[in-house]
UniProtKB/TrEMBL annotation:
<dbReference type="GO" id="GO:0097250">
    <property type="term" value="P:mitochondrial respirasome assembly"/>
</dbReference>
<protein>
    <recommendedName>
        <fullName>Cytochrome c oxidase subunit 7A1, mitochondrial</fullName>
    </recommendedName>
</protein>
<dbReference type="Pfam" id="PF02238">
    <property type="entry name" value="COX7a"/>
</dbReference>
<dbReference type="GO" id="GO:0002082">
    <property type="term" value="P:regulation of oxidative phosphorylation"/>
</dbReference>
<comment type="pathway">
    <text>Energy metabolism; oxidative phosphorylation.</text>
</comment>
<keyword id="KW-0812">Transmembrane</keyword>
<dbReference type="GO" id="GO:0045277">
    <property type="term" value="C:respiratory chain complex IV"/>
</dbReference>
<dbReference type="InterPro" id="IPR036539">
    <property type="entry name" value="Cyt_c_oxidase_su7a_sf"/>
</dbReference>
<dbReference type="InterPro" id="IPR039297">
    <property type="entry name" value="COX7a"/>
</dbReference>
<keyword id="KW-1133">Transmembrane helix</keyword>
<comment type="similarity">
    <text>Belongs to the cytochrome c oxidase VIIa family.</text>
</comment>
<dbReference type="GO" id="GO:0016491">
    <property type="term" value="F:oxidoreductase activity"/>
</dbReference>
<keyword id="KW-0560">Oxidoreductase</keyword>
<keyword id="KW-0496">Mitochondrion</keyword>
<keyword id="KW-0809">Transit peptide</keyword>
<keyword id="KW-0999">Mitochondrion inner membrane</keyword>
<keyword id="KW-0472">Membrane</keyword>
Length: 73
């Protein structure tokens, strides 16, 4: 009986995949990673900011280690 309750409530859910396909396949000149709207744009920008900041931090650490190694040699 528990299984029947789940399956009957699952049938009531609307399939949103075709709507999403229309949005992401639209030829509007936007890259696919920002076609989802404001949330996607913010997530993309945050990801790029963290990536660039992380790479800059790694570069600083590597150069510090190289300078220390050169001084100790």
């Amino acid at each position: 009986q528990r299984h029947q309750a789940f399956s009957s409530s699952a049938r009531q859910l609307k399939n949103k995949v075709p709507e999403s396909q229309k949005i992401f396949q639209a030829d509007n000149g936007l890259p696919v990673h920002i076609k989802g709207g404001t949330g996607d744009v913010l997530l993309y920008r945050a990801t790029m900011t963290l990536t660039i900041a992380g790479e800059e931090r790694c570069s600083r650490c590597i150069s510090t280690v190289q300078e220390d190694k050169a001084r100790n040699t």
